[in-house]
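Researcher: Here's the sequence for the chain we discussed earlier.
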Amino acid sequence: MENPINPQPDDNQPAFGTATATARAVNQAPQVDPYRAAMQGEIIIQTRALNSGVKWFYYIAGLSLINSVFALAGSGWSFLAGLAVTQLITGFAVALNKQGGAVITVVAIVLNLIAAGIFFLLGAYGKKRHSWAFLVGMIGYGADTLLCILLGFLDAGLFFSAAFHAYALFNLYKGFKASRELSNLLVEPSVQTQY
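Model: Thanks. This is the structure I predict for it:
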């Protein structure tokens, strides 16, 4: 029986730190499949790109609402990434509200909430790797970019907003691309068809 207070080394086992013990430890280490490790690394990279693209939906929606609040409060200040359509709606509401009618302001707020809500929803679907959400978002934000360019002839500051819209569109495209890549990477190998 082994003495627990003063254990004796087993003569069959090499002492820790010897060449034989080190070789045995190396041979017993779990083998890492390099393909699997590379795939896991690629999944991490694409997930980060997807999350970055999704954040842009939330930035656009949130900043659009903040721009609407600023415009309704009479401030001339706004964020570049906000939707031009919400600024246009709010501008009409402010102009018509001077002639009387708080109903116009309420309608503008509801329309702005709907526009921002659409982008929040697209972000939620994009997070679930629905590529169509990115496509719809890029088409909608692309149309908003064209609106910025058209309105830029009336207010030169909107040209800066259009340039920032282009940057946001690029980030939405990267999210779309990552969504497609992740959908391909996360399909079970047994389900994939060979061509």
